[in-house]
């Protein structure tokens, strides 16, 4: 099935910095998007603009008032992008730091059993386990489906208990590339514990589109903007009204229900407006949607379809080139026919160690990443008996020609093994 983005792919790629060349190494294909997506050129320009402004918010001068308005606009943009009319958005040091803050607040405030799954990134799993221990409450570990590389609502339901007060959910795995049905998992949790505080790690999912906080019925959602076409140096969190009513770390005598500590970087907020504006533009190219939220949803659908086309090509081949599934001794993490896959293929070969595959590809200008069975990825790789695997992570600006170049390199590598 052809990609809906194919006719405008050149225009899409033109909007991103370093789309086909590394500023240090020269021409390259970027298949390391799960480690950090490419940056919109508009976000680069916005960062430079706001880095030069000396004024702070909250002062009685025109610049300060303009900065406050820009932040307010960005928060409105976030509400549209994430689809929620309640709660509050705020920025922090990173997605990991914000997950720790939300989870710490929930666990210490709710004082009840915590539940999470073995598929989770340590950003949420470590926070949940650390603060459950400090709070003196139990932690329930939901085992994920190791063959499919995901966790389901049924997996959560099988171990849920009425005393669960805090739950964590991973939206998409950065190791397997599989997306979870957050709304279904949330429903399964609330069927047993209706007032449970539910916090979602959306860091890997965000670049692939399709975030709907209201439909998910959750209390916290976190992204890292550098993984969704913005820049490094900040994270974005959304907290529900009831989560914000718990005791927060704040200045004595300061405003209530306030997550923000210290002066915020207006440029961080402004660069996320650039991201939302890009999704809006893309949705307008692929649909006749009449409003901004509908265009954002249309962009997410088109992104998903394009990435399916690329990952299916990578797995099954194109023309005379075999796909990864046709090469001898290749194991596809999560299986080769998994509808939950979101723009990522993780694999291992019997004949060539993962670290060598990544190095050889890199020497040919194809950027991928090795995932080792360490504290980041051991939860996925150890049950499969794999010391390491190769992660090839795509985004919607990647092309079929780039996938073809990757498959050609892999075929030669396999033939020479």
UniProtKB/TrEMBL annotation:
GO molecular function: cysteine desulfurase activity
InterPro entries referenced in this protein's UniProt entry, alphabetically: Aminotrans_V_dom, PyrdxlP-dep_Trfase, PyrdxlP-dep_Trfase_major, PyrdxlP-dep_Trfase_small
Gene3D superfamilies the record matches: Aspartate Aminotransferase, domain 1 (3.90.1150.10), Type I PLP-dependent aspartate aminotransferase-like (Major domain) (3.40.640.10)
EC number in record: 2.8.1.7
Domain Aminotransferase class V per the UniProt entry, residue ranges: 29-406
Pfam families: Aminotran_5
Keywords recorded for this protein, A-Z: Pyridoxal phosphate, Transferase
Keyword Transferase: yes
Recorded superkingdom: Bacteria
Descriptive protein name: Cysteine desulfurase
Gene: sufS
